[in-house]
């Protein structure tokens, strides 16, 4: 847009980064939290104690519930209880046109669980990729924003001409704008491989929503057929239309387990009760980057093995490895910690970029900021501090809402959005610098109060020490950050000092 | 992908990146008041790249080609963050910290 | 893009804005169009199993789109940017039309 490739890219980086920054900040923060989804879910169901249940028995229990409550369903799914989620989840489709339905059962009894109703870590996970909106709309917004972010990343690399000579440089003592620019560069460059990887692989997780045209042209839009041919999904067997007795599930699961070394994750019963019914044993991902689940398919009435799914062709392997890299299920605690750190750096890169946009355009002392600048400042506050406030309120709601409340899980979500909305309105309505300090302090207090409230309302002792430590660390970081931000003064003088090198103001 | 292999990666990456950081005029000056001589800079750069290469080799040997590169990049990011933090807030600690990282790496290698 | 830069400094704000809006629209719709055509074409044309071709083409499509967007914003003028997308789009569309006629995509009976 300006003469010269680098100037064009600087312009593109600035504006692409700004328009996608708010959504992507939320996606990065909730996605980073999702690395600990199981731990969050665990914390949010404090009544739950792990009980070891034989997988085959668990599958029978789930199927028994479904036989009573969903006899006419076209497919049942029974998810085997795991150490990090000791509950029996069952899902079913009443027909292909209706949305999936779900019930959570006690793994020991097979009756609906009496544990408090909560979405747990799944709430943040679902927010991460569809913003808790209608799936179609939410995924498109996240996917399109991620594409813009990828453009911002590539143009940012071109713009930042001294990647290597400034590699370790964080000049916090020069000027506010220089400090923010260095912080943006350092957090961006240090985790650059992660940023590129996570953005591209994230787009790939939504690939067939965003870019269905390969399936349209090569499969005439038959997505299921593509997954069958790619070896990722067993072929669908149509119902025969007459009832027949199925074999017990536990022996089938045991036979499948004898062939596969990974633990059983889920059983799928297609067309239950029908003569053509099939049973699929789905196993956890084998050690490896690729996100693929070994599967053994049985005929439900005879017990004959119809298909075995496991190995993938090269392109499908790369595709699923992208998904695996994004989700990092393979990572042990130490590597998961590094992924989490990289996620935080990504969130920080976006946040510092958004703040830098506003700092670089700060009016001279005494002048009134224009509408656009006020709006950006308000949105920055409402997003960068509003989202953490919402998350802390969500955790507090989990402990403070009555356990027997109607629609309890929905109310937890409502508290999240209400707290965030309130914070965002404060951000838009109140002056700038002071509000950062006040809202930062409020967010810090909310996070610091989570372990306290949790300890007063539950009796799990030190079971959640890790979660509590994380809350305290986040609270202290927010308090420190709010203090830093509120110390920023005198934009006019500083702007003049850095004008010649105002990279970010291209 | 055991914690000790990640620790080994972190220690080697940290030592290597610290040497690369000290090889740069700006940071060397901030710590020792003078720029490094050409020979010092070259030696530090060589040591730095050796540390990073050793970290990569350790990652690939301990976590194989599947996860090794992922673990290596992750540890580089973590270690670089540590170097930036030190060079901005406690520049004088860099050299002792980098030297201390070497026995730590040896201990982690023994455990891994 | 010296002429556009001159427009900006000359205070012709609305023309500058229209040109920027044009580039944004071209990048979003043109970039997506090129990527979509490339995906549809490569899914049929790549010499590998059908599912492999779709996976490869879909993986590549997002890099293609980003490349197209970078091109749109780095080209000297808006019309050059548009031409740079129109030529590959036409070629890809022709290739897709040919591939759809030649490759049998019907499900097995």
TrEMBL record, chain A:
Lineage top rank: taxon: Bacteria
Keywords: Membrane, Transmembrane, Transmembrane helix
InterPro entries: PepSY-ass_TM
Membrane-crossing residue ranges in chain numbering: 12-36, 137-158, 194-215, 338-359, 379-401, 413-433, 464-482
Family annotation (Pfam families): PepSY_TM
PANTHER family to which the protein is assigned, alphabetical: IRON-REGULATED INNER MEMBRANE PROTEIN-RELATED, PEPSY DOMAIN-CONTAINING PROTEIN
Protein name in UniProt: PepSY-associated TM helix domain-containing protein
Automatic annotation (TrEMBL), chain B:
Entry annotated with the keyword Transmembrane helix: yes
Pfam families given in the database record: DUF3325
Ranges that cross the membrane: 6-23, 43-63, 69-87
Keywords annotated in UniProt: Membrane, Transmembrane, Transmembrane helix
InterPro entries: DUF3325
Name this polypeptide is given: DUF3325 domain-containing protein
Protein's organism: Methylobacterium adhaesivum
UniProtKB/TrEMBL annotation, chain C:
Organism in which the protein naturally occurs: Methylobacterium adhaesivum
Keywords: Membrane, Transmembrane, Transmembrane helix
Name of the protein in its database record: Iron transporter
TM region(s), chain numbering: 20-46, 53-75, 81-103
């Amino acid at each position: 847009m300006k003469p010269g490739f680098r100037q064009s890219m600087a312009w593109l980086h600035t504006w692409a980064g700004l328009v996608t920054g708010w959504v992507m900040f939320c996606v990065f923060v909730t996605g980073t939290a999702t690395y600990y989804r199981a731990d969050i879910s665990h914390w949010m169901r404090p009544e739950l104690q792990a009980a070891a249940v034989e997988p085959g028995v668990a599958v029978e229990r789930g199927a028994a519930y479904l036989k009573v409550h969903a006899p006419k369903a076209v497919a049942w799914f029974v998810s085997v209880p795991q150490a990090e989620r000791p509950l029996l989840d069952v899902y079913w489709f009443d027909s292909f046109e209706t949305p999936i339905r779900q019930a959570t059962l006690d793994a020991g009894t097979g009756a609906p669980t009496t544990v408090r109703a909560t979405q747990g870590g799944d709430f943040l996970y679902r927010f991460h990729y569809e913003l808790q909106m209608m799936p179609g709309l939410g995924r498109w917004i996240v996917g399109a924003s991620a594409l813009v972010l990828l453009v911002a990343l590539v143009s940012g690399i071109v713009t930042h001409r001294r990647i290597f000579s400034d590699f370790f440089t964080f000049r916090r003592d020069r000027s506010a704008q220089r400090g923010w620019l260095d912080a943006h560069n350092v957090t961006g460059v240090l985790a650059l491989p992660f940023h590129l990887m996570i953005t591209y692989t994230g787009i790939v997780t939504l690939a067939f929503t965003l870019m269905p045209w390969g399936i349209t042209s090569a499969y005439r839009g038959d997505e299921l057929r593509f997954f069958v041919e790619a070896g990722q999904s067993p072929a669908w067997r149509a119902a025969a239309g007459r009832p027949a007795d199925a074999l017990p599930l536990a022996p089938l699961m045991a036979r499948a387990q004898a062939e596969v070394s990974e633990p059983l994750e889920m059983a799928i019963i297609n067309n239950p009760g029908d003569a053509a019914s099939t049973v699929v044993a789905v196993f956890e991902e084998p050690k490896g980057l690729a996100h693929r689940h070994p599967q053994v398919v049985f005929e439900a009435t005879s017990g004959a093995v119809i298909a075995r799914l496991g190995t993938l062709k090269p392109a499908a392997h790369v595709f699923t490895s992208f998904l695996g890299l994004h989700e990092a299920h393979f990572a042990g605690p130490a590597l998961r910690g590094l992924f989490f750190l990289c996620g935080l750096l990504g969130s920080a890169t976006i946040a510092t970029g958004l703040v830098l946009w506003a700092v670089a355009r700060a009016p001279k002392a005494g002048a009134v900021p224009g509408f656009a600048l006020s709006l950006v400042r308000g949105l920055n506050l409402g997003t960068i501090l509003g989202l953490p406030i919402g998350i802390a309120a969500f955790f507090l709601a989990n402990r403070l809402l009555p356990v027997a409340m109607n629609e309890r899980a929905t109310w937890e979500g409502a508290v999240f959005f209400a707290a965030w909305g309130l914070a965002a309105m404060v951000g838009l309505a109140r002056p700038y610098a002071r509000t950062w300090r006040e809202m930062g302090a409020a967010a810090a207090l909310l996070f610091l109060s989570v372990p306290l409230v949790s300890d007063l309302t539950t009796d799990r002792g030190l079971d959640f020490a890790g979660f509590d430590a994380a809350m305290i660390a986040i609270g202290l970081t927010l308090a420190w950050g709010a203090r830093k931000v509120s110390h920023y003064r005198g934009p006019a003088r500083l702007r003049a000092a850095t004008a010649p090198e105002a990279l970010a103001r291209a | 992908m055991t914690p000790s292999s990640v620790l080994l990666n972190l220690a080697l990456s940290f030592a290597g990146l610290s040497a690369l950081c000290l090889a740069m005029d700006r940071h060397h000056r901030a710590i020792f008041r003078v720029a490094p001589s050409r020979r010092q800079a070259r030696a530090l750069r060589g040591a730095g790249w050796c540390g990073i290469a050793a970290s990569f080799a350790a990652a690939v040997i301990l976590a194989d080609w599947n996860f090794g590169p992922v673990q290596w990049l992750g540890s580089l990011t973590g270690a670089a963050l540590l170097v930036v933090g030190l060079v901005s807030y406690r520049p004088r600690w860099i050299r002792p910290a980098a030297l201390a990282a070497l026995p730590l790496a040896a201990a982690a290698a023994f455990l891994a | 893009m010296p002429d556009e830069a001159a427009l900006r400094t000359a205070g012709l704000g609305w023309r500058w804005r229209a040109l920027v809006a044009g580039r944004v629209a071209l990048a979003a719709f043109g970039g997506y169009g090129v990527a979509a055509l490339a995906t549809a074409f490569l899914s049929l044309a790549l010499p590998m199993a059908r599912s492999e071709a779709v996976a490869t083409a879909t993986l590549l499509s997002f890099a293609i789109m980003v490349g197209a967007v970078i091109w749109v914003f780095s080209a000297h003028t808006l019309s050059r940017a548009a031409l740079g997308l129109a030529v590959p789009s036409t070629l890809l569309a022709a290739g897709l039309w040919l591939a759809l006629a030649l490759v049998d995509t019907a499900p097995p009976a």
